[in-house]
Amino acid sequence: MNKIYCPICEKELLGQKSEWPDYPFCSSRCRKIDLGRWLGERYKIPGNSSSNVLNTDEENLD
Q1: Which residues pair with 12 in a beta bridge?
Q2: How far apart are CA 43 and CA 9, in angstroms?
Q3: Whether pTM exceeds 0.70
Q4: Domains in the chain, CATH or no CATH each
Q5: pLDDT given for residue 8 in this prediction
Q6: Is the distance from CB of 22 to CB of 28 less than 8 angstroms?
Q7: Alpha-carbon span 30 to 8, nearest angstrom
Q8: Which are the contacts of 17, defined by CB distance < 8 A and separation ≥ 6?
Q9: What is the DSSP string of 23-50?
């Protein structure tokens, strides 16, 4: 059986994931910390910047 850990505090999640309402987090506190990190732009998804996407769209209009 694989061990699963909370990505924020690294607490081991024992039992089935159905027993953890905030899965993959151990608590609503860790879930909110993760949301705050996304909203604060500490996490980023690699890819094209939004300015490059906008420029591409404008070129297609001609």
Answers
A1: 5
A2: 16
A3: no
A4: 1-46 (3.30.50.10)
A5: 97
A6: yes
A7: 6
A8: 4, 23, 24
A9: TTSSSHHHHHHHHHHHHTT-S---S--H
- Which residue type, as a one-letter code, is found at position 18? S
**Total residue length of the chain:** 62
Half-sphere exposure of 27 (CA within 13 A, CB side): 7
Compute the distance between CA of residue 30 and CA of residue 24 in angstroms, rounded to an integer: 9
> What's the rounded Cα separation, in Å, for the pair 25 and 50?
30
Tell me which of 59 and 34 has the higher pLDDT.
Answer: 34
pLDDT tens-digit readout, 3-56: 899 999 999 999 988 899 999 999 999 999 999 999 999 988 888 766 555 555
The amino acid occupying position 41 is E
